[in-house]
Every structure is written in structure tokens, then in C-alpha cells.
Amino acid sequence: MTDGPPILAAGCVLWRPAPSGQGIEIALVHRPKYDDWSHPKGKLKAGESVEACALREVLEETGRHCELGPRLPSAHYTVAGRPKHVTYWSARALSGTFSPTKEIDALLWLAPHAARLRLTQPRDRALLDAAVALPLP
């Protein structure tokens, strides 16, 4: 039994070329409210498209502008008895600088293997696997 309509959200597996020139790094955000590590994501605002939401949430949570790449598998789970649907993209980080907030207090850039180990939720690890399987642009 569910209470209310689904929660709609969007986010990204945010990546950048590794400073070493070898491979990529993945951005993970820490949410102190849940003490977890995840990909940047958040709820849609009224009238907002999923693409606009994903771009906004990445900017709000990481301080980075990004370029959306391929769609990734969506996540479906329940939060407080309500179904939640999160649409994800792979996204390349562009310009910007992280500043901690009450919602997101830390940002890490990690190699994919290290990011996979740090992620709290198994669904986020599966999402990372799908993103790193894609060819880089």
C-alpha cells in the first residue's frame, strides 16, 4: 500500500577525466542527514523537466555545471511508503566549485572502483556499473 503519488526525481553519475590523464573520476556526495554517499540527485520542482532537474541538482549539490550524456537505468524504490522514481544520466562535469551546504557536506572525486566501494546503496553501485560500461565521448 502506498500513500500518495510517486516522488519524481532526477540525477547523474557525474564524471570527469582523471587529473593523471588515465581514466575517469566519479563524483560522490555525502548527505549528513542520512550519513550516506550517493550520486547527486533530487526531486523535480513543479513544471520542471527531468533533464532540467538533473542539471539543477548536480549544480546545487556539487557546484558543477555538467553536460548530460546517455540515459542510465532509472531507480525505483519506496520512501516513507511512497514510490520514488529517479531518472539518471551519465554526465561530464564542466566548470564550477564545490561549497559545503547543510544538505551536502562533502564531495569526493574517486576512481570508479573506489567510488563503487564508497557508495552506500547497492542500487547506486549498479548505476555506477552501467555508467562506466559506456564508451567515453
Topology:
Layout: E1 7-17, E2 24-31, E3 36-38, E4 41-43, H1 50-62, E5 64-79, E6 82-96, E7 106-110, H2 112-118, H3 122-132
Parallel strand pairs: 1-6
Antiparallel strand pairs: 1-2, 1-4, 2-3, 2-7, 5-6
Uncertain segments are none
For the secondary structure, the number of strands is 7
Overall mean pLDDT stands at 95
Classified by CATH, the class is: Alpha Beta
CATH architecture: Alpha-Beta Complex
Number of alpha- plus pi-helical segments: 3
Structural class: alpha+beta
Note the overall shape. globular
Main sheet specs: 7 strands, mixed
Could you say how many structural domains there are in total? 1
Q: Classify the fold: give the CATH topology.
A: Nucleoside Triphosphate Pyrophosphohydrolase
End-to-end gap = 43 Å
What is the succession of H and E elements?
EEEEHEEEHH
From the alpha carbons, calculate the radius of gyration and give it in angstroms. Answer: 14 Å
Write the CATH homologous superfamily: Nucleoside Triphosphate Pyrophosphohydrolase
Instruction: Please indicate the percent range of residues in DSSP E strands (runs of 2 or more).
Output: 35-45%
Helix percentage: 10-25%
Word description of this protein:
The chain is an alpha+beta fold. It has one domain: Nucleoside Triphosphate Pyrophosphohydrolase (Alpha-Beta Complex), CATH 3.90.79.10. The chain has 3 helices and 7 strands; from the N terminus they run E-E-E-E-H-E-E-E-H-H. The chain has helices at residues 50-62, 112-118, 122-132; strands spanning 7-17, 24-31, 36-38, 41-43, 64-79, 82-96, 106-110. Strands 1, 2, 3, 4, 5, 6 and 7 form a 7-stranded mixed beta sheet that branches. A hairpin with a 6-residue loop joins strand 1 and strand 2 (24-31). Helix 2 (112-118) runs antiparallel to helix 3. It is globular, with a radius of gyration of 14 Å.
